[in-house]
Amino acid sequence: MSSKSSMFGTEESMTSSDMTSETTDMSIPLVPQKMELDQDLTLENDSVLQEIEMRMAETAELGIENDVAIHFTGMYLGETGAMQAIFIIVNRMDMAMTNIDITISFSTVNGDVILDKSKYSLTEDSFGVLEPDTAMPIYLDIPPENEEAFFSTSNMEDLIYTIDEFDFDER
User: Fold this and answer.
1) Is the pLDDT higher at 1 or at 34?
2) How far from 2 is each of 9, 38, 126, 139, CA to CA, in Å?
3) Per-residue pLDDT reduced to its tens digit, 43-102
4) Would you give the distance in Å from CA 101 to the centre of its chain?
5) Is residue 22 in a domain?
6) Which of 41, 148, 150, 161 is the 20 to 30 Å CA partner of 115?
7) Distance from first CA to last CA of the chain, Å, rounded?
8) Between these two residues, 37 and 9, which has the higher pLDDT value?
């Protein structure tokens, strides 16, 4: 993982449309990946993890009750030709998950494709275990040919992302 990070406009944060005043008091903690912990990266000493956690705190509600969801943080790592979009994956189910195989689509509202049913494996060896009521960062490689689409908008509300497939081992 590159130590270089950047993000879209500083005023941006993870948002969900139609926010209501019915927010829960339940706080979802950010848990670093096993790979990050193995490199001694923690919420206390890693600026990327700290920024992700800060953006999470600004979001009224994370995840979907009794489900798994992803949220784009508006941040990325790397440089041209080797970009990674930083998402969080939020587990609001009552089971721990590992060896997650996830397929994600990511595009602009104008139809510019960033990820088209891209498959990612979050193995226990590198990712770790996604415990109930926690969030973990995931770093998704952006194909170089789609970087222009990725940077074509600075408004996070103009980005659409979905989980197309989701398989895991219950832990």
Assistant:
1) 34
2) 20, 15, 16, 11
3) 999 999 999 999 999 887 899 999 999 999 999 999 889 999 999 999 999 999 999 999
4) 15
5) no
6) 41
7) 26
8) 37
- Asked whether the predicted pLDDT for residue 151 surpasses 80, the reply is yes
Range of the domain at 153: 29-170
Q: How many structural domains does the chain have? A: 1
Instruction: Specify which residues 85 forms β-bridges with.
Output: 76, 140
- Dig out the tokens for 98 from the structure: 């590992």
Beta bridge partners of 142: 83
Is-contact 160 118, C-beta < 8 A?
A: no
**Secondary structure letter of residue 51 according to DSSP:** H
Establish if 91 belongs to a structural domain: yes
Whole-prediction pTM: 0.83
Burial class of residue 32, CB neighbours in 10 A (0-12, 13-18, 19+) = buried
**What letter does residue 130 receive in the DSSP assignment?**
B
